[in-house]
Amino acid sequence: MLAAVSGCGFTTAGPPWQQWMYEGPPAKEGVEYPPLYVQGWKDGCHTGTAAQVPPYYKQFYSFKQDYELAQNKVYYQGWKDAFDYCQKYLNQYYYRDFI
Known about the structure:
The protein has helices at 2-6, 35-52, 73-95.
């Protein structure tokens, strides 16, 4: 049983759709994101997820932002982009049946 569960490849607890959150922003052809933008993306998406998921999943997500990097424009832009993107994505995911 343990081998079957460990083979799933999840990096943290939570639903399977969250795996892409840890990989960074969605790939665009010809675009390479700076490392600080990717780090901001990961933290912002984690926070956006915390803001939008049902109560059960809130135990896995919380506000996440590197306070030292928050003043960096590249990091903060990645954080803000991901917060908006992930929050809207999850809003559509959870409420798609009601639209």
